[in-house]
Amino acid sequence: KCQEKGTPQVLGGQQKAAESSLQHVVNETTKEMVARSCATIITHPFHVITLRCMVQFIGRETKYSGLFDSIVTVYREEGVLGFFAGLIPRLLADILSLWMCNLLAHVINTYAIDDTVCRLCRCMKTYTHWSLY
């Protein structure tokens, strides 16, 4: 019943609270991972075109002249898969960095910062993402 109401479940002990807190971090990180992955997949074709235009500028080439011309050129030369070149490494890097940062913030907030000791420690929690759960 407590979980249905949205309040954390505390069943007598710090171990249960830590497990509930970790489960909350895992659930929120999973939701954020899905949202970021969808956004990355949707915007990746524009990322590919942007990078190709930047490299073209540095190399002083004239292959891509505008957005629509770039779309036509990539489609003509590489097909639809050309718009998704490099998508898997980018997704893996995004997902890995998201999990590492969120779990590190959780560990710091749970074990390294003791907010009962001083007011400064409570203020330090505002600099991490998981300070409000």
UniProtKB/TrEMBL annotation:
Chief localisation class: mitochondrion
Keyword annotations of the record: Membrane, Mitochondrion, Mitochondrion outer membrane, Repeat, Transmembrane, Transmembrane helix, Transport
Any matching Pfam family: Mito_carr
Record localization: Mitochondrion outer membrane
TM spans (from-to): none
InterPro entries: MCP_dom_sf, MCP_transmembrane
Topological type in the membrane: Multi-pass membrane protein
Solcar repeats: 23-111
Family, as annotated: Belongs to the mitochondrial carrier (TC 2.A.29) family.
Protein name in UniProt: Mitochondrial carrier 2
